[in-house]
Model the fold of this input.
Amino acid sequence: MNKHIVFDPVFFINGTDKDDQEIQNLKNHLVTIARHQPSWGLRRPMIWVLIEVLIDNMIKDNINIIPKTYLVEANTMNKDLALSDKQMSEFLLTQHALGKIMYFDQAELNNFIILYPPALVNILRSFITDEMFWPTDETLRSILRRMTETGKIHKTDLIKLWQQKQFVHHIPGDDYKEFIIQVLVHLDVLVLPKRYSGQDETHVDYFLVPCTVKHKMPMSFLDDKSFANRTIALVYHIRQSSIPSALSFKLIGAVSGIWPIKEVNERPLLYHSSAVLCVDSQTEFRIMVEDNRIVVYLTNMSSRSCISPDIAASIQDCLTVTLQAVLKFYLISIGKNHQQVNVSNLFHIEVGEVCCRSPCVVSLSKAKQTPEWVCGSGNTHFSRDPLLWIFNKVINPYKLTLANKVWSSSVMLNNS
Done:
């Protein structure tokens, strides 16, 4: 049961014994880990000290989030020791990389600075928390109850939760609230429903919150005999004993931000570590995170022979890139050097069909080498349809030449 634990050794600490030696052992080990970080021992400019002291003083005064303009104005008061715009940007990005602050240098996020990162954790506790810690107010409890049942939370309800006295001092104004919402969307904690893509965020009615959903996906669809004839399967095997829950929530969140979640009776089909997503009116796919594998079923309403090769291959390619990004994010967050992370070696892909209420898959190399295979249940499966997951990268030279001629002709016509 300990195979999923990241660090070795494991420390069992007795919280009732103030002389417990394990606490000191843990401290020593944390120092060892810190010494191996790429930032350990690096020199920092003396000119940063004044800004660092200013930030420390603000944290002591319980100021946890500030507009960036406040820090810029305070910096100008240092006169000859004031940082230039470029130096200020380098300072903020370095402090973020060290985990001292949170600063995202991109549009809609770079107007504020989170001086004290644990403040964001406290804000998350307003809606990501166990039922035993829910507020006593029945209105607020009903908001949290609906969220855990449906995976949806309305923006107005989220703001109601933030008006509680233990959270309001973190986000005192509307600008702060909009910033926190943008950060949570950036981190895939809140997911902007795909149907709102491209619209002004002020028109967003609700968000999806994958990490709060408790209901598991019903597997009754596997009992439908026609489902197997309309579906191809894709499986990612992670080379670890299990997938951390935080990783599965971020993966589901990232995927549901790319394709729209299917809805039935205005309820999104979002479940614990799984979801049903729409591709088009005839195609949908299910994604499920189970132990150390990620299972994907791509289904056409008529037949799997009607599945578009471009759609299947595009979904696989997008899922693979998304999984790599999520794995890298997770590994860096636990202290791995991003220059040493090769996420392509952390998983392998298998393709296949549905057989006996489960995915019957083979390695990608085997599917390419043999036109058919016999599974453990004695059923014969053909590689043609499962290979729809993979782009055909063999280019016909004649088609390429013809395409170039058409492109050249169109350029000449446009110029004329």
